[in-house]
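Fig. S4 source data, part A: sequence.
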Amino acid sequence: MKLNKTYLALAMSAILISGCSSTEEEGSLTDAAQGTDASTSGYSDGSMSGSQIGSGNGYNTGSGYGSGSGANLGPEFSDPNNPLSKQTIYFELDSSQVKQEFVPVVAAHAQYLASHPNQHVILSGHADERGSSEYNIALGEQRAKSVERMMRSQGVTAGQLEIVSYGEEKPAVSGGGESAWQMNRRVEVGYQ
C-alpha cells in the first residue's frame, strides 16, 4: 500500500509540474485527485434490496478472475443473472465515479465480502491509452479507491481489500478508438 501512495505522490507531482493541460481527450484529474468524486451517488443510504442487486447489466468480465482463479467461489459467480458474475466496473473518460449501472454490481460484491470476512479481493484500476503514464496510473488508482470507498461504506473491512493501479499497462482490448478505450477504463474485482 505504501508503494501505491508513493506512485500517487510521484504521479501528482509530475502532473502539477507539467501543467496538466486539459483537453477533451486527456481531460483533467482535478476532481479525482481532490477526492470530490462522490462515487457513491445513486445508492442513497447504502442499503439495497435483493431485487435491486439481482439484475444483470449485460457486461461480462472476461478478466480471468473469479471462479476460474482458484478462489473457491460459489455458483453465483458463474450465474450470468447474478451481479457477482460481473467483476469489471467500467468508467467514463477522465472519471473515477462509479457509473450508476455498476452500483448494484459493487453493492453485490460488498454484500458478499461483508458476509465472508475471510475473503480477500484485489481492486485493480485501469485506464485507456490516452494521457501520460503517470496520469493513467493516478486515474486507475482513483477508480479503484472509488470502488473501495463504496465497499467500505457497506461493511467490507480494509483488510479484505487491496488496491493496485496498472494505468494503461494492461489493456483489456488492444487498439485505439472509443470501442477499445471504453473497455480499458475499468476496475477489476479479483478474488484471491
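Fig. S4 source data, part B ends here. The two ends are 17 Å apart (CA to CA).
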